[in-house]
Amino acid sequence: MAEIWIFAESREQTLELLNAGRSLAGELGAQVVAFALESGLAQEYASHGADEVLVLPPLAGDQPLEAYVPVIAEEAGRVRPDIFLIGGAQRGKEMAARIAARLDTGLCSGCTGLRLDENKQLVMERMLFGGAAVQTVVCAARPQMAAVPPRTFEPAVPQAGREAKVRELPPVSVSPVTVVKRTPKVRETVDITEAKVVVCVGRGVEKKEDIGLAEELARVLGGEVGCSRPVAEELQWLPEDVYIGISGKKVKPELYVGVGVAGQIQHVTGMRDSKVVLAINRDENAPIFDAADYGIVGDLYDAVPKLVKELKNALKI
Q: What is the CATH number of domain 192-315?
């Protein structure tokens, strides 16, 4: 029977990949096999769509997550699953490349779309040229591997009463790589990718102090402030942690408000999955309006205070 395998370095992304895997399994007539970093996650993965859960052994304190590569590759080499989906976060992308090399198969990194063609072959999609084009990738070897960025798919919905076969994998051999020290990066802001509302500042804002307009709008909406790349990297008005775009953060909020954002493709790639997009720009030909559900053509210095006032009245703040 065909198998679809799933590995991610976090519980959240495993649930997202289970959604994608379950959809493909229905068309392919395959079972879904998920890796778990701890045994306590096995039942949760089963209820979210896994038919089998492979529990990875605990790592020693000085072993990195990459120490799992030989174990996963050996198991995959023995079974040769039809499809292998790996969470494409920073460490996951590196692990995916190493596993693909060991299995002598191809890998579609940065995969944002998955479907089966008429021959039940996996067709993988990823963005090219800053999001201006979509490349389709087909892998002739097995497994067909894809590294999928976080938040590409919605998490799988749990189903009561689902059970899965659970199997523990053998211990990890001692890795020649030793972690000498871990120093967490100091985060200056909240994780903007988790925000339900994002108010994004662009180059239409004339000076740093005026970002306060966007911050007030974000407070009224219960959201967070982000920015386009030039605001963070060139002007350094906001931390790089909050700039949105192809080389920055990818957000998927319930509401995105672009304040003075031009909307070049490099930026739109990072917010295109927002559920509702409101754009405020005085240039009626700004590209951001092509991606917007609602648009206000006008000076942000006039529009934003009026919008804040109306929201406060409506929300009785």
A: 3.40.50.1220
Q: Report yes or no: 20 and 50 within 8 Å, Cβ to Cβ.
A: no
Q: Taking a C-beta distance cutoff of 8 angstroms, is the pair 253, 275 a contact?
A: yes
User: How many angstroms separate the first and last alpha carbons of the chain?
Assistant: 59
User: Burial of 259 by CB count in 10 Å (0-12 exposed, 13-18 middle, 19+ buried)?
Assistant: buried
Which CATH code, of 3.40.50.12780, 3.40.50.1820, 3.40.50.620, 3.30.420.10, is assigned to 3-168? Answer: 3.40.50.620
CA 1 to chain centroid? 30
Domain-by-domain residue ranges, the chain? 3-168, 192-315
pTM tops 0.70: yes
Closest CA to 214 of 203, 231, 204, 200: 200
Q: Quick one: which of 201, 108, 215, 189 has its CA closest to 152?
A: 108
Q: How far apart are CA 118 and CA 22, in angstroms?
A: 18
**pLDDT tens-digit readout, 101-111:** 999 999 999 99
Give pLDDT tens digits for 146-159: 999 888 899 999 99
pLDDT tens digits, residue range 68-93? 999 999 999 999 999 999 999 888 99
- The radius of gyration computed from the CA coordinates of the chain, to the nearest angstrom, equals 22
